[in-house]
Amino acid sequence: LQETLKTKLYTYCIVLAIFIPLLIVLNILVGSVYIPFSDVMAILSGDSSNELQAGSYIIYGLRLPQVITAMLCGASLATSGLLLQTTFKNPLAGPSLFGIDAGAALGVALVLLMMGGNITFGGLTASGYAAVLIAAFVGSITIALIVLLFSNIVRNAIVLLIIGIMIGYLTSSAITVLNFYATADGVRSYLLWGMGSFNSVTLEQIPLFSLLIIPVLISTFFLIKPLNAFSLGELYARNLGIKVQTLRSILLIVTGLLVASVTSFCGPISFIGLAVPHLVRLVISSEDNKWLLPLTLFTGIAIALFCNLLCVLPGERGTLPLNAVTSLVGAPIVLYVIVFKLKRFS
């Protein structure tokens, strides 16, 4: 059995090592504007001649930031989904289940639908993209802190899960009311943000985006041993000296920061956080977070790059909405898991 597991792990690592670089290259080559392969190679090698200026802007100004954004988002959402599923021992736990996405959506709705796209605090005013960014981050973190507060009051993981779902319903209801009273332009702006996109982060914003996400992702590797103990049951974890409530709070904070960063920059992105951990479990047949966590992170990168590639495949006809593609890729995985669980426990 151990040899079989090792074979699966090594094979899967090799597949990821091949496909992630391949997907990166394809995402740079393929887009709504055709750029010859020779021109792409010349641009990436540093050629700045006049005839390549338009292509250089597309590569460095659009496609390269999009690739980096997709990688960071995929890693963040997949890792968040794994942390939540392990914490609450629920196969359907994901970043959107606790209302964190909905919190970001409510913040953006307040700014776009009721405040005219501007935030004024004291003598400072933020407008446009900056206002949306601030509103989404504050909304996500606020809901994450509310869930964290309830986690210190409610000891039962299932009850806390239900509370998270109810918070999501409340925020969705508030957004519906705001849409009713909003202007047509405000509703349109909000709907465009709600579709999710990897192309909303510019090359200048990549350092800030990376700074918000990478340190938090690195911190998750220090949680591997507590997560393994926790996955065997709360009683077992307590016997090992792990403070279960503290661990759950840390996991919620980490998840909240990752999802808040992704949602504020890119909008709500569905199914990656829910489906990717299950896909990795199905492939490697292991619950050991020593392997499960890093493989989930890198699989999230691969899936996000794959979805982004599918979005631009129509070429000159435009790009597909990101959430339509992530649902198309993720929903069959989740359906398979549900059917498998029903068969297993029936």
Alpha-carbon Rg, integer: 21 Å
Order of helices and strands: HHHHEEHHHHHHHHHH
The largest sheet has its strands arranged as 1-2
Q: Helical segment tally?
A: 14
Largest sheet: 2 strands, antiparallel
Report strand %.
under 5%
Average pLDDT over all residues: 82
Shape: globular
Description:
This protein is mainly alpha-helical. The protein has 14 helices and two strands. It has helices at residues 2-29, 37-44, 53-88, 100-114, 128-153, 157-181, 184-194, 206-220, 224-231, 234-239, 244-266, 272-284, 289-312, 322-345, and strands spanning 118-121, 124-127. A two-stranded antiparallel ribbon has the order 1-2. The relative contact order is 0.16.
Provide keyphrases for this structure:
14 helices; 2 strands; two-stranded antiparallel sheet; 346 residues; mainly alpha
Could you give a quick summary of the protein structure above?
The chain is mainly alpha-helical and 346 residues long. It contains 14 helices and two strands, in the order H-H-H-H-E-E-H-H-H-H-H-H-H-H-H-H.
